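Appendix B. Chain record.
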Amino acid sequence: MADAVRSAEKPVIDRKHLQALCAARGLTTKETAFVIAYLFDTGRNGFRAYLSTYRTNGRPRWAAQEAMRVLRRPGVRGVIREIEEMVPSVIEEAAAVAGITKARVMLELSRIGFANMEDFTKLDEQGHRLLDFTDVTREQMAAVKSLTVETHMEGRGENAREVKRVKLELHDKRNALRAIGAELGMFKERRQLDVTVKDETARRKGEEARQAMIEHLKQFEQQKLIEAMAETVEVREPAKPKRQCAILSRA
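Structure tokens predicted for this chain:
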């Protein structure tokens, strides 16, 4: 890993490290700004990186083409490729420094996925369930998403008293269990089955739609044929009888 983007005390890639690496690779100030904007863009969008770096002179529609030209420059392309190849090792190093392991992540997810409200409550003498954190451990608290305490006064004068309402919300168990199951490969067969069923359903609906369209076209063609035949038939009215006029001659 290049010394310009690596620090034993802080194994991360930040703007300072990127500027040092770009300068070491001979990039210009504009090219350096473009590379930083491109790498820090979550969607790796060259158009946005170009707009934030170069002047468009009122013609932003050309920014996409110009961004592609900048990305094709050997120096720019080389630095971006070098950083992208470096990121996995930097993340791995940072995870090792922080003590992040797969087992630790799975354990934290299991605390959320298998948490139960009963761990944070107890029954009083009347059978009402009340919040109770007396015996809750730090590990169990990992499942708590939020704990809200609202205070208000009830009653007036001497009868007024302070009332506290506590709201406990746990993290989403389903998402945690889904992440655990996906990591352990528990849902591969079911997911494949779901995809097959959906594909078969879509194929059947498509075939039904195709048959309906064919039937519609057939009816349309028949109707057009009937209309054409009707136009070719010549309807003749019966001839009217000629009147015979008697010519009377005078003697």
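Further analysis of this model is presented in Appendix C.
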